[in-house]
Design brief:
Number of helices: 12
Distance between the termini: 73 Å
Strand order of the largest sheet: 12-10-9-8-6-7-15
Number of strands: 15
Order of helices and strands: HHEHEHEHEEHEHEHEHEEHEEHEEHE
Number of domains: 2
CATH architecture of the largest domain: 3-Layer(aba) Sandwich
CATH class of the largest domain: Alpha Beta
Structural class: alpha/beta
Radius of gyration: 27 Å
CATH topology of the largest domain: Rossmann fold
CATH superfamily of the largest domain: Response regulator
Shape: globular
């Protein structure tokens, strides 16, 4: 284009060509090219289902897409195993031009850090991770706060004073949940116990169901879980028992069995982090939000739960947001683990560091902290 204009100017100067200063509109004013959308990638540890852990993160992905419209383009890869497979998928997303990648599973932390070193211009969000890097932020939620509140519901509703718990892996986050649930139960039913079955997997609906049935056969009348599907809820519905939904509302599969749901809300966090990348002020921070920040809430009560219990939980939820209630605070008497060792001294509250490194099960839990 520039070569042709130079030739025309030379001819006009020589009187050999009548040069007109009138250009087509496009040539007169170069229209700015619309900016390419920010590509935001998500890696999911299980398939996208109608409820559960991945469902909540995919709802947040949809919220990002809806909030920013054409400014972003989101995509996801589902059912990605933790470990080498995750590393491959995360690297593929970076190579495809994704500039912001969310990896919401504990086992994705190391693969995320490894890939991040290869792509310093890409921002990574290791959700449930704990190690940061110049281009890796970490975020998690205080799920244990919701577990404590759900334990209050279970304690009020259980006639057997015996709950079941189907658990994935014995990592601190899961131990926190079991302990907080037990503490919540015992705050209203001091003799309550919680039986744990470990699966050592996050997603295996058949085994989740079998574990729930085993616990029901052992006399529990209410059940909680920390796995990826809604199989435990379906089992409770089938057996006419009670269950606490995790990650999201699961009344669709357990309309009468569900007594409450511990729900995780990632929408605001994901939108804030996306906005930071768009604005150019993203930083590798650490976030650990809970009830106070709106990242965890308890509600979606089932029809069996009396209004008095709903009101009690709502009041305790407000108290938790203000710090008046804490899942790991001892009263005048200290708190022991389930092998008789004092883990919280009288009148003391566990520090965040102690909670993040939790490796024990509280008194009242029937099971091993080793995952066996």
């Amino acid at each position: 284009m520039y070569k042709n204009l130079a030739a025309a100017a030379w001819l006009a100067a020589a009187g050999l060509f009548s040069f007109s200063p009138v250009f087509p509109a496009a040539a007169q004013q170069q229209q700015p090219r619309p900016a390419d959308p920010l590509k935001v990638g998500f890696v999911y540890v299980t398939p996208v289902t109608e409820a559960g852990w991945v469902h909540q993160h995919d709802e947040a992905r949809k919220a990002v897409q809806a909030a920013f419209g054409a400014r972003v383009k989101t995509s996801f890869v589902e059912n990605v195993a933790e470990g080498p497979d995750a590393e491959r998928v995360i690297r593929d997303l970076a190579q495809q031009g994704h500039k912001l990648i969310f990896t919401p599973s504990f086992g994705y932390a190391e693969p995320t850090l490894k890939v991040a070193r290869e792509f310093p211009d890409v921002k990574f969000e290791a959700v449930t991770g704990y190690k940061t890097a110049p281009n890796v932020a970490v975020a998690n939620a205080r799920y244990y706060e919701g577990r404590y509140l759900a334990g209050i519901v279970a304690g009020r509703m259980s006639k057997a004073e015996m709950a079941g718990y189907v658990a994935g892996f014995p990592i601190p986050e899961v131990l926190q949940g079991i302990n907080a649930f037990t503490a919540g139960m015992r705050s209203v039913s001091p003799d309550a116990q919680v039986k744990v079955i470990w699966l050592n997997t996050w997603f295996d609906p058949a085994r989740e169901r079998d574990a729930a049935m085993t616990l029901f056969n052992q006399g529990v009348d209410v059940i909680a879980f920390h796995t990826g599907s809604n199989a435990v809820m379906a089992a409770a519905q089938e057996r006419g028992k009670m269950a606490v939904a995790y990650h999201s509302d699961m009344r669709k599969v357990a309309p009468t069995a569900q007594i409450a749901a511990v729900t995780h809300v990632w929408d605001d966090y994901y939108k804030q982090r996306t906005q930071a990348v768009l604005d150019g002020n993203w930083k590798p921070g650490r976030v650990w939000g809970g009830v106070k920040e709106g990242m965890v809430r308890v509600g979606d009560f089932g029809p069996k739960v009396p209004k008095a219990v709903r009101d009690e939980v709502a009041a305790r939820q407000k108290d938790m947001a203000t710090g008046r209630v804490h899942a790991f605070r001892a009263g005048k008497i200290g708190i022991d683990d389930n092998v008789g060792r004092e883990v919280i001294a009288p009148g003391k509250t566990l520090s965040d560091e102690d909670i993040l490194n939790m490796s024990w099960l509280v008194d009242g839990v029937i099971g091993s902290a080793s995952g066996k």
